[in-house]
Design brief:
Elements: H1 2-22, H2 52-65, H3 75-79, H4 85-96, H5 99-111, E1 122-125, E2 128-130, H6 132-139, H7 146-154, H8 163-169, H9 175-184, H10 189-202, H11 205-214
C-alpha cells in the first residue's frame, strides 16, 4: 500500500512539473454519468407430463434457463461514495490495495451511478483537476487497459483537446488506448510538436513513435 501511495505522489509531482513547464490552462468537463440497470431476463418453462423422461428434460430446461445472479457492489465500497475529492481517492486506495483494483472499483461506483464520471478527485490549482479517468491513467502508470478505457467512455467520459487531457495523453503508452485517444480528439500538425515535447518530458516512447511514424512526423 505504501508503494502505491508513493507511486501516486510521484506521478502527481510529475504531472505538476509538466504543467509548470507548459503553463497552459484547462477547462474541466462536467459530464453526468448514466446509471446502469441490470437486466432481469425471464423465461417460461413448459410443463411436460407425457413421460418420466420428458419430466427430467423439462426440469433440466428450467435449471438452465434461470438467470445468473447479478453481481452486487459490496456495501463497504458503496459507502465510499459518500466521500468526495481527495478523501474519496484516499479511501479507494486504502480499500482496494493495488492500482488495478482502484481503477476497477472506481468504475464500479461510476457505472452504478454512485459517483460522477467527472468527480473532482484532486485539484492541482489553476482550475486544473484530476477526474476518475485521469486518476486511472496515473494509477496504471500510463498502462491504462483498453477494457478500462472503453468502460470510461461508455460511462460518459469525454475526450477534449485541452491542456489537462493533453497531459494525460502524454502519459498513456498503451498503443490501442493512445491511438484512439489521440485520433478521437483530432490532434493535427499544429499540436504534434506540443505532444512530442510532452512525450519527451514524460519519457513516453509510444507517443513519440505515434507522432514520428504513424503521423509521418508532420510538425507545424
Amino acid at each position: 500500500m505504501k508503494a502505491v501511495v508513493g507511486v501516486v505522489v510521484a506521478l502527481m509531482l510529475a504531472v505538476g512539473i509538466y504543467i509548470s513547464l507548459t503553463g497552459d490552462s484547462a477547462q474541466p468537463t462536467a459530464v453526468v454519468s448514466p446509471e446502469t440497470q441490470p437486466s432481469s431476463p425471464t423465461s417460461t418453462v413448459e410443463q411436460v407430463t407425457e413421460s418420466p423422461a420428458a419430466e427430467i428434460e423439462s426440469s433440466e430446461t428450467a435449471v438452465a434457463s434461470e438467470p445468473a445472479p447479478t453481481a452486487q457492489i459490496p456495501e463497504e465500497l458503496a459507502a465510499l461514495a459518500e466521500l468526495s475529492g481527495q478523501e474519496l481517492m484516499s479511501a479507494l486506495m486504502k480499500y482496494s490495495g493495488d492500482s488495478q483494483a482502484v481503477i476497477e472499483n472506481t468504475l464500479l461506483l461510476i457505472e452504478s451511478g454512485l459517483i460522477s464520471i467527472d468527480e473532482r478527485l484532486f485539484e492541482f490549482g489553476g482550475n486544473r483537476v484530476m477526474s476518475p479517468m485521469g486518476m486511472a491513467v496515473m494509477f496504471s502508470l500510463g498502462n491504462l487497459s483498453a477494457e478500462h478505457f472503453n468502460r470510461f467512455l461508455a460511462a460518459g467520459a469525454e475526450l477534449h483537446r485541452d491542456d489537462m487531457n493533453s497531459k494525460f495523453v502524454a502519459m498513456v503508452d498503451e498503443p490501442e488506448v493512445l491511438n484512439t485517444w489521440y485520433n478521437r480528439v483530432g490532434y493535427g500538425p499544429e499540436e504534434h510538436q506540443e505532444m512530442l515535447d510532452g512525450s519527451l518530458i514524460m519519457g513516453n516512447a509510444s507517443l513519440t513513435n505515434l507522432i514520428m511514424q504513424d503521423k509521418n512526423g508532420e510538425l507545424d
